[in-house]
Amino acid sequence: MYKKFYRAFSQAPSGSPSAMLHMACHSHHYWPDITLEAVQQYWHDAALLADDKWGPIFHEKIPAWQNAVARTLQIPDAGQIAIAPNTHELVYRLISALDPAKPLRILTTDGEFYSFARQLQRLEELPHVEVTRIPKTPYATLAERFERELHTRNYQLAYASLVFFDSGVVFPELLRITEQKPEETEFVIDGYHGFFARPIDLSKVADKAFFTAGSYKYLGAGEGLCFMSIPSRCRLRPLNTGWFAEMAELENRPGSVNYGDNWLRFAGATMDYSCLYKGLAIFDLFRREGITVDKIHRYVLNAQSRFLNTMDKNSHPLLNRERLIHHDLKEGHGHFFTFDCGTTENSEKLQKELKARAVLCDRRQHLLRLGFAIYHDDNETYQQVFDSP
Q1: Are residues 251 and 326 in the same domain?
Q2: Which of the residues 241, 243, 348, 351 has the least number of beta carbons within 10 Å of its own beta carbon?
Q3: pLDDT of residue 256
Q4: What whole-number distance in Å separates Cα of residue 235 and Cα of residue 98?
Q5: pTM, whole model, 2 decimals?
Q6: CATH number of the CATH domain containing 380
């Protein structure tokens, strides 16, 4: 039903089988056809307007993007949504705003994405930084264990994923935990694997937590456009700050480092805004066609159910219920399945076998991930995953 919007990107690469089944969509979604026109429009605007392009970008395009994100996540104040080329830049800018003269205690899990996990390892080399990592498994007790630790010690920063990148499992009760967090703790929700996949309502926590995500995965607008929502009462002064943060006072610099009361507090510097045009084009396309996150989620749930039915009819040594890191689909799972193949060698071998039968997927060490998207046919049974080459 939705595949018609992805005609230009649903063809097999040169030299590959024609019936390619793209199941790495949790890593990189295909771009809707409309994004080609959007990139061309960006080129036209930039070439025609030159330096004058900043007016439309900052006064029209960015507010339109902020409003679209705010509607999607039910964030009350769209003006509190900062943008940057990646979430790492935004999160590190937040960390830089914490008092470097005081001990820095950070609470997180052992299941966070590489960029944040690596940054924490580097920070831990400093004598005043202490990181506590709560094991994500067993998932059934994660909420209890994380919340208990959050209220046990004085943490300056807490950081957790809404949907874990390696397993697709949803962090149980994370929004409730955030809503009841200690006042002195800055809280960051990594929402990248949930944004534009699962319905998310931040209306109760928007003024309590930072929320990060971007356009690279489920929105399908490509890399280079990420965002972080900021609590409205935030008065932090990032040490890592760029000239965009002073955009309102460029012509009359006060001689001191001041910060605005909107998203520019966390602004960086110059970036490529072609991704902004692509993201807006997709939001507009989906609005015209009545495609909502709820509909996308239901579509993917149906696809996942068809996959499970097909899987259960086959006797695959690795792709089976016992190997599937699987929780309730409606309440506790993202838009991809993860199979524990036991060893890195097993997952690598299986990935190659799947590619040989025109199924594209990805893996993380011993874990193999299979994703689902709205550009999969609505009658796709996924038997291709299990057939012999």
Answers
A1: no
A2: 243
A3: 81
A4: 11
A5: 0.95
A6: 3.90.1150.10
